[in-house]
Amino acid sequence: MARKVMGPTGSRRRIWLLLSSLALTIGLAVVFIPAAGANDVRAVAFQLDGNIAQDATNPVTYDWANFFDANGGKLSLPAGFTASSFVKDFNTAPGKKPGSVVFDTSDASTYTIGSKDILDVNGWSCTPANNVTDKGDIMNAYATAYTDPVSGHKFMFFALERNANAGDANVAFWFLQGSASCPAAGGSFTGNHHNGDLLIVSAFTNGGSVSNINAYEWQNGALNTTPVANGGDCRDATKTGDPTCATSNTGTINSIPWLTENKADGVGHTLQTGEFFEGGIDLSAPSVNLANNCFNTFVPDTRSSQSLTATLYDFAIGQLGECTSTTTTSPKDGADDTKAPATSIPAEPGEASITVQDKTTVAVTGISSFNSANTPNLTWHICGPTDPTSTQLCDGSTGSSTPACSTLPAISCVGVAVGSTSIQAATTVDSPVVTITEAGRYCFRADFAGDSGVGVPPSSDSAAHECFIVGPQQPQLSTQATSGPVDFGSKISDTVTLSGTADEQGTGGPAGSDGSIGTVASPVTLGGDATGNVSVKAYGPDSCSTVAFTSSAISATGDATVGGAGTNFEFTPSAPGQYVFVASYAGDLPNTKGIDFSACALAPSSEKVTVRTIPTTINTTQKVFPNDSATIASSVSGNNLPSGGTVTFSLYGGAADDATNLANCMAGTATGRIYTRQFSTNTTPANSETFRTDNTTVSVSDNETVYWLVTYATGDTAHTGRQSQCAESTQTVFVNDAGDGTVFPSP
């Protein structure tokens, strides 16, 4: 915006202000297709007729009202149009009437003295100002890009509104491939020109006619002062075929859709004659030849003349975004393009590693090729491992998507460098292979550097869909306790077989992780067998609530069988009953999970051992201790037996047959005699005496017959001696219990 201000002494002074911040460029690429001949910029899809509304009688279809709404917001682009931008460059303030607004002369987008088009962008400077000249004060500016579907020619159309038509005006439009900015408080611009940046300069009168328009190209660090295109008023029928033209309004324009301001009418929807300027250029024209450039920023200005060293007044900044780039990616199996990454670390006997790649699609609109130097411009990183519950992305953030790391210095660009490649057109390409040896969560990041030389902006993908989880292995335990039943007092044990473990994570990988990630440039050393302690418990007897035994641990390496008799897994039960073993494994994280003790009640039969009581047997063997008695009596009444007599008992047996035992008895010899007992008579004078054996040492245990021989020697001559006739015998028939018997008492 521009205003003339009278100083206190009446002298005129001009103060110029530059917009405080020039936004980063968003590019739109347009494909250049050579045409059979140059197109007439007046005859393509846009009406260059000095007004804003679509004219139904014009054979050309569209005008500015087709592109922006009442607030200057973008409408949907018609077919063939690839970008548009609207910049409001004036302020309003509340008026005296309720709901009314008036023009606010403050302006934050004016140049300071010394800013010249021949300088690089960083040679321009700005400062806030309050008033600039009326005829040099920009109200609104807009631009749109179009590619003709028949010829493939690429066109740029541009316009601005000024505050007053008090005299002729000079205007210009810079179309930049890169970006620029200036501090809000004023100072030097940041940014640089690139070869192919385009400056369009024109003059128009307060009567609404355009005398000429010229286009200049920035080349090799300077503005080429020879125009690449020139033309005149778009309404001049004699100027057809010009690659560029411009025009202005020759009468009042009413009912402008968006808010504007002019000195005569104030804030409203009206522009007076000569306050509206528009133009167009055929970027594919042979003399221009800039169709393969992406113009992302446009900077309209007002100026003292058409000279390339003219004093620059007011300006506006528009983000046209003619070129764009997007980078979209998805992780995939390093060996199979159709598969997602493996979901778990492989178990034994395989190696604990998987391979992954990042499948990356770079889409660029508005341009067919770029990166003519063929330098690396697509790079990949991978971050991890993190906890599976983490939301950390590979750009240092925890959001679902973020801009490219290179455009956000505050975000830490993290991860392991995977590699880079050069691309010169939109394409799909895979990253180098990455080897992962550790369970966890991983995220890729792909960064496309763009090509600032032709206006292709960078893009990146590090969103959550770039992340995947590699899980650890869950091993298994199979067990076998001592086969039972076993006798009380015996030892019992458990044998445990561990299977399904995964090797430990690798080491020695590149910086950016814990060393477990391997790249083509920095391979990883694979890890060895998993380790971890195995332990057992035994519950019992006959109870799953009483722990009878807790072992000390045995270390297992890889898939292994441990324990058994003679190891830490053996013990002697303290009581009979059933014992139940359970086992656990400590694991070897991050690649191999542990296994807790299983529930005693769910233990399989292979883990149950019965310890029985010590068994007894019973069998019987009968024994008979034969005894005999004899009564010795005197046949004379009153006569007492003599003293000193001898009564002898002899028992015969032990022979293989009874007849022998009897014969030996009848003979009265020592042969076959198994027992002898003698008594003395008349120890107490009596007519008769009875004598009884007290045998408790000689027994008969077999089925046989034993015979007694009893003799009486009187000890005097008055009495006669006697002997038995071996008729006295004892016959034994034994039936013994030879079995184990049954439990007593009954259970």
Biggest β-sheet strands, sense, barrel: 8 strands, antiparallel
In round numbers, the mean pLDDT is 88
Poorly predicted tracts of residues: 1-38, 400-412
Structural class: mainly beta
Distance between the termini: 112 Å
Radius of gyration: 59 Å
| Portion in beta strands | 35-45%
* Shape descriptor: rod-shaped
Helix share of residues? Answer: under 10%
Please report the total strand number as a whole number.
Answer: 50
Helical element count? 1
Question: What does the model show?
Answer:
This protein is mainly beta and 747 residues long. Helices cover 1% and strands 35% of the residues. It is built from one helix and 50 strands. Strands 9, 13, 14, 15, 16, 21, 22 and 23 form an eight-stranded antiparallel sheet that branches. Strands 34, 37, 38, 39, 42 and 43 form a six-stranded mixed sheet that branches. The chain is rod-shaped. The two termini are 112 Å apart. The model is unreliable at 1-38 and 400-412 (pLDDT under 50).
